[in-house]
Amino acid sequence: MTEKPLILVSNDDGYRAKGINSLVSVLREFGDVVAVAPHTGRSGKGCAITSETPIKVELVASEPGFEMYSCTGTPCDCIKVACHAIVPRRPSLVVGGINHGDNSAVNAHYSGTMGVVLEGCMKGIPSIAFSLCSHDSDADFTPTFDVIRKVVAAVLKRGLPAGSCLNVNFPDSASYAGVRICRQAAGSWVNEWEAHEHPSGGKWWWLTGDFVVEEQGDDADRVALDNNYVTITPTKIDFTDYALLEDMKGWGL
């Protein structure tokens, strides 16, 4: 008998978040699911790991074909400890999300959801991140389900190249204009900090800001999202700038 796929899931919003529980409900159609997620929100942690303090992992739900664990570490820690000590065999797929908030453009570099799939990718496991452009804790994720099914089925069938993963973002919409395979948009954050007076003197600085898209190309993920398209951005863990590498060979250093 062919063994069912084993899918390892995590997020950066915490194991109680509606996004990860909605995702699990879809992924269970494809095989056995093990979810190891932070015990509370860990947004913006990127690929951060815990190195100076121990982490605690606790089984919080178990039934045939599904287990959920909470972890006091980062999203990246969740995948590391799951692969080391929790999953019964090598996962067929690592999935992050569904994130409450988009991870398009350069935001992918900050994202704990992307940290999940980059860690899976570094372990040689096909990996996919899913994010919705809504920070609402009770957001409606059901419009994403059909696309999630198609992407997961395609990756389970085809695999992904070594060193590559997928960053999938959904508009906050009841229906979509379509799906676009996109590049990462150029953009930057402005007005990032808001100052407040501290009661004992000095200032508190509160992270805030506005994201500015620096281009209007239809093939850029943030632009396509703004036009109500689901975006899929193939992403590599190899940061090497090969064009600059070749140019630097002539620098005489």
Provide mean pLDDT, rounded.
93
What is the CATH first-level class name?
Answer: Alpha Beta
- CATH architecture, by name, is 3-Layer(aba) Sandwich
Described by the principal axes of the CA atoms, the overall outline is globular
Oligomeric state of the chains in view? single chain
Count of the separate structural domains? 1
How much helical structure, as a percent, in the residues? Answer: 10-25%
Derived structural class: alpha/beta
Helices and strands, in N-to-C order? Answer: EHEEEHEHEHEEEEEEHEH
Task: Show the helix and strand layout.
Layout: E1 6-10, H1 18-27, E2 32-38, E3 57-63, E4 66-71, H2 75-86, E5 93-100, H3 112-122, E6 127-132, H4 145-158, E7 164-170, E8 178-181, E9 187-190, E10 193-197, E11 203-207, E12 210-213, H5 221-226, E13 229-236, H6 242-248
Parallel strand pairs: 1-2, 1-5, 2-4, 5-6, 6-7, 8-13
Antiparallel strand pairs: 3-4, 7-13, 9-12, 10-11
Helix pairs in contact: 2-3
